[in-house]
Each structure stands twice: as structure tokens, then as C-alpha cells.
Amino acid sequence: MSTVNYSDKIPNNVNLSEDRTLQRALEGWQPNFVNWWDDVGPDGSTAYDVYLRTAVSVDPQGWAQFGHVKMRDYRWGIFLNPGDANREIHFGDHKGEKAWQDVPGEHRANLRRIIVTQGDTEPASVEQQRHLGLTAPSMYDLRNLYQINVEEGRHLWAMVYLLHKHFGRDGREEAEALLQRTSGDQDNPRILGAFNEKTPDWLAFFMFTYFTDRDGKFQLSALAESAFDPLARTTKFMLTEEAHHMFVGESGVSRVLARTAQVMNELKTDDAQKVRAAGAIDLGTVQRYLNFHYSVTIDLFGADQSSNAAIFYSSGLKGRYEEGKRTDDHVLKGQTYKVLEVQNGQLVEKDVPMLNALNEVLRDDFIKDSVAGVNRWNKVLEKAGIPTRLTVPHKAFNRQIGALAGIKMSPDGRVVGEAEWAAKKSEWLPTSEDFAFVASLMGRVIEPGKFAGWIAPPVMGINRQPVDFEYVRFG
Amino acid sequence: MDMLVEAGVIKQHLIDPEICIRCNTCEATCPVNAITHDDNNYVVRADVCNGCMACISPCPTGSIDNWRNMPVQRAYSIEEQLGWEELPPELSAEELEAAGVTDAGGGLDAAVQVEVEPVVTPGEAPFMSTSYGATTPPWSAAHAYTNLYAPKRPVTATVTGNFNCTEAGFENETHHVVLDFGAMPFPVLEGQSIGIVPPGIDALGKAHHPRQYSIASPRNGERPGYNNVSLTVKRVTHDHQGNAVRGIASNYVCDLKVGDTVTVVGPFGSTFLMPNHPKSNIVMICTGTGSAPMRAMTEWRRRLRKSGKFDGGKLMLFFGARTQQELPYFGPLQSLPKDFIDINLVFSRVPGQPRRYVQDAVRERAADLASLLRDADTHFYVCGLKSMEEGVLLALRDVAQEAGLPWEQLAATLKKQGRLHLETY
Asked: How far is A82 from chain B (nearest CA, A)?
């Protein structure tokens, strides 16, 4: 069993050095975590000194400390946002009561399930991205990938802390299981579908971090409202790190588009084959990747009608996005929300009880946020004088979960027959040829300041460093 | 952080909308709530940001680290920034010089609210009056809707009233203008403001920026139950140095006819709001068109009092103008019952009489103000010309200290509890 220097190795604000029970639980778990990192963490990265941002406390100076460190020595911290002893539950049936510092017995199973589901996504994305370091388009991008990896690792620590601290033996067992499931494993896969999909190339990675990490933002925001105060404070702090992941996705796709537009303008063509031949990713491929990642991600919000969602909300476990800024009664009984279903081959809206539609509410908040970012991508094309615009597909396109699962739908929202779907699928979703083409571009570029030909350099470096800064020092 | 203002130039903190990913980290991090957003952009309030830099390193994009030297009078407003698709270029030294004191545009309009710290002479220990202003509303304030209409998608209102609310034939005429929104949603609270976009283009061929005016009517309308608001707008004919200048927006508004339509953005403001609980006292200190929010609050209390609420809360008004003839709403103010509001009017340019300013009246009423300062239900509102702010706060400080109340501690409490609000221009 390893001995851990708590104050130094694990920066925390949860009084870890005084908490013997928690120490013992972590001493059991920590070596297994390190083994997991070595086994399925970033490929071939052990010897690198990476310019990482490390959190050592929750104040702005403390959680944004930059320096070259080996990822294995990254200080996985346990942080809760500063608490308010008088915080009140502000939604659901317990509204107005004092927030819980301990898990109420009747909500134990549901809370554990929520935390485990969230926790399971964190190591999953590290596993999904483990090979990407071998094909990084630049040293700058490599560093960003590694930053995301360690932060996902820290988010796992955050959830494991909650399990160890508040769920006793059950919690310890669940924490172990988080290291035993593996993304894409046939026998013991990760809990949610999107986290078992492959992230085969960097375009997929950027789409994943744009869309799927944005799902993380909305889920964490909903949990940051929780009546269970330690969960609310933990997820609030995680959100500050999640922002970097979305930045990598948004700016990554922007840079792909900037480069593609540049090639299109240089060659004066919108012919996909000519663009490809010039080593850039054609806009059709970008749109198909977008369609895929968007539709897979909106499935993550769950069924459009869910009694669990109603229970989680009414019992105060999980609020809505920006619950505190909304002006309704925060109880939502007797209210309705519109969800989609197909009747006689047509999409129709129907009113369902609001409480049962909360997954759909969160999904719609996500959609609004996502669309705004896609519009920012379009500005890149607009600025370059390219008339093509990217769009998000219809909400019912390519869905596998909820009432819309199994319905064949075009991206623009028409219900289509099997024949049309089969004929058009290759126009709407990435094909094996698309994957093969994008994979063919993935060569490793790690000289400072140099970038692969399919992506433009970023506007600025990380932490105001120059773009050609040595973000990774190879051992 | 040290001064953001130097020799009439503000070092304005801005966010690059082309790089920002709208992740909310800056807004969540900012210790003084200087950052806000709408569906389009994240922006920094020039009057609240103290340049503490807490937001800089947590920002994942670097978009937060942008600064522009701007003439104080022309600092980019929130609504301007919300409409941006890219950062405006830095003004050149010549442009700065040209745009500074010689600005003849709406930047000098009476009701444009660009709030920055005063210029300080090196070596003097500054009394930072702005630092006392609260950035949170009172606990019992109603929830304010803001930015429902951005400059890119404004709303149209119809003029249903426009009259001079100062005495006719005297200098510095001030108009009371009523705008009706018809069926368009435009919920407002007392203390909020709206932006008016003057038609036409400026000297550079660009559309005019919106000018911000405080709302002078209560939440249920200038006429109760109607979807209308009123504004108090002074016709600008001279700048602050006394040079002749014709304010673009103020003259446009003052010349509006009933039936005209106006382009409106907003509403704005989520902190300069009145308390709702029945025992709260309101001390209002204003000059000129700074009376607009005070009229709104007073009228709302008057309507509530008529319906039998608010018997406990006191209202106290300190209102300054150059002369009685220039004081907006002088007539209506006289008809308010003495047991409803304690009115103190002061005039600074009455021939044959010594000049009196609002802070003089504040000192004269020290005994009553001291007991109100002790009362945790009292809220203070200061609105009017920038130059009054420091004098008023120094007077309040003296009142407190003479009453044995430690000012810094009291001021910190007032600020923290959203009980001292400053809005000067």
C-alpha cells in the first residue's frame, strides 16, 4: 500500500490530512488509479514534461498554476467550491429547507447512481482518447489533449471522493468499479453509449470535446444545483475545468475550418475531392462528423420522458441548468413541456408533464448553447468568403434513446423511409471512406510552432505563451 | 488594483467575442460581478470592473485579456459590447485626443451612464466614492429582466406623451416622455434604464449607439396597468465644460411628437433596485435627471400606500437643481403628503442666495439620517451628476462618524447588503 503525502501530493480543501477514514479509502484506491493510468492512460507519454495547468486551491490564482510536469506527477486534487453554511435547497419538494451536508437515507441509492454515472464518464474519455497523442497535429494540440486527460482524471478523483466520503462500503466498491469498466469493452463497457464510441482521429476529438464535453457542462451545471451540498460544490469547481475542454473543441474545429477555407480560396474550388487532394478536410466531411457527434451527444441526456428525472428533481438531487436564474416556482408541478413524437409518419409536438420532461429541458438548453457555437464556426467561413454554412441536424436525427429512437429522419427534419435512409445515410453520417481519409491526414507534428497541413495555428498560445512555445518537452 | 483611469482615459477591460467560447468561467470567477452576458456575448461592465485580474488566468481561451484605452466619456457600454462580433480596433493617439474632451456627440448626453473612478492627483490619498457602491440588489428587490432587446433586435415603442416637466421658458428644460410598448413584452422595475437608438448616422457614417435613460415610472406603468414607461430627459445644449454642443439623443427625444415611434433596447440594470419589504426605508439623493429612478420608486410606494401597504417604511428625498424652475417635477412633488415623504430641495443658482448642494442638506439632516443609518432596513440611492457623488458620500461619512458609527465598517455592510447604490454620470 502506498503512502501518500496528503498536503503535497493531493492538494485539497476537504481536510484530508485529518480525515483518517478518507485517507484509508484513498490509500486503497490511489495505487489502482495509478495502475489504470499506466494501463489505459495517454499512450507513450510517461517521460514527457507537459506544460500543464494544475489546481492547488480553489481561488483563481490557486487553480491556474502553470508549469512543466510529468502527467504521472500531476497533483490530482480534491476541491469543493467555498460553501455557504446557510445555503437553502432552492427547488423541488424540499425547497426552502437547509441543504444537506450528508446523504439522506431515502436518497442514497439515487445519489450514488448519479455520482457513479457522472464519474464513469471521466476515465472513459481518457480511454477513448488514449491513442491521439501519437497523431497530434502540433505540440500545442498535444499539450491541450494531455491537459484534458489529467483534468478528466481529476474529475474522477472528485467523484471518488464523494463516494468514499459519503457512501461507506458501497461507495468504495463503486469507486473500484470505475477503474474496472473500460470504454468499448464488450464485457464490461462504460455506462453511457457515447463513452463507448471510438475517438479515432483529431476531428472526432474536437467534435467530442465540443459536443460531448458540453454535455458535461450541462450535466455538471444541473448537479451544481443539488440539495446535496458536497455534490453541488464539487461539480461547481469541475465546471471551471470543463471550460478548457470545450475550448479545445470549439477552437479546434474553428482552426480546421479556417485551414479548409484557406485551401478552398487558394484553389478557388468547392470540390471536396480537390480540397482533400490538397490535404485539407472538406466541409461535407466536417458536417457529417458534426451530425454524428451532435446526435450521439443529445442521446446522453436520456429519454425525453423520464420518471427518474422527475424524482431527481422533486427530491432535490439534480436541478435544471441555471436553476437559480429561472423565475418560475422551482417546483414545476402541474406544468407542461412540449416533446416530439411521430404520429402517422409526421413529427408532432405533445404536451407532457414538465417534471417528466426535464431531460428534454436540459437537452434543449444544450441545443441552444451548441447552436450558438456552430454559428461562431460559420463566422469563420463567412469571414473567409465561403458561402457554405454548417448546421446542427434535427433533434430527431439518428437518435437511439427515447421516443425518437429508431425513427428514420433526415437532418432537416423529414421522416424518411428505410430506402431513403439507406440511400442518403452516406451523405448524412461519416462513412468508412471519410474515416479513412481523415485518418490518412493524421501524422504526428511535434516541432514547436509547426502545424499539420489540415489545421490552422491557434490565434494565441496557452497562458499567454507564444504559439511556438515548447509546450511538451520530450524526455 | 490601481486606478483604471488616468487623465480622463479609461483602460477598459473587454472580451474578444471572436475567441470567447462563452463558457461562463469569467462570470463565475469575477469577485465583483462585473461580467455579464446575453445569448450573443460575454461583456465587462466598465463601471464595475476594478481590474483585479482574477478572471485572467482561469479563462481557457485568452479572450478575456483585452484592454482598450478609451476616453472616459466614450467607454464602451454594455449594450454596445453585447452587439459586437469582433473587438473594435484600438484608438490611435490622434483619435484619443480627438475623441477626448472635444467629443460633441451623445457621449456627453446628460443621461448616458458611464461610470468610472475619478481622476486622482498623484500623492493624494483618494476617497474612492465609487468603491462604496453595491453590486447586488437589496434582498427584497423583485427580480429584474435585463437585455430582452439587444441592439441587433431592438423593439419599437410609440410616444404617447411628451411634455416639459420644468418651468417653461427657463434654461435646461427637461422632458417627461412616455413610451408605450403595445403588445410587446417590456417588464421593468424602478431603477432600471432603457436605451434609445437615435435614427440616422453619425459623422463617421455609422449608426448611432443607443443612449441610456433611467425609467421614471413604476413597474406597473406610467399609467397603472398599461405597458408604458416614462423617461426624464434633459435637453443638452452645453457640455460639462460649458461649451455649446447639441446632444444628439437628448434633442431627438425631447423633440418627439405623440404618435412617433422610437427604437428601444434593454431594459438594463439589475442592482439599482428598490426594496420590496414593507418596513424598508428609502433615502434618495439626486440632482436633475437623476430624479428619474427616485420618481419611479416614490410613485410605486405612493400607489402601494394607497392600497394600504408600506405604512412603516420611510421615504426621504434630497433633490438638487440650479433653480426651482429647472427642477423636474417641482409641482407634483409639492402635492405629496408630508407624512409620506420627507422632501429636501436645494438650489445652487438662486440669485441673491448662497449656493446650496445636496450634501449641504444631507449634513443639515444629520440627526434624522443617523437614525436611518442605524436602521438595517434603510437603503440609500444616489443618482445624478458624477461630481455630486464624492460630496454626498463624504457628507454621509461625516454624519455616520458624528453619530459614533464607524464609517468604513458601516459602508462595507451597506455595500455587502445591497443597501447603498450609486448611479452617476
From this structure: 12
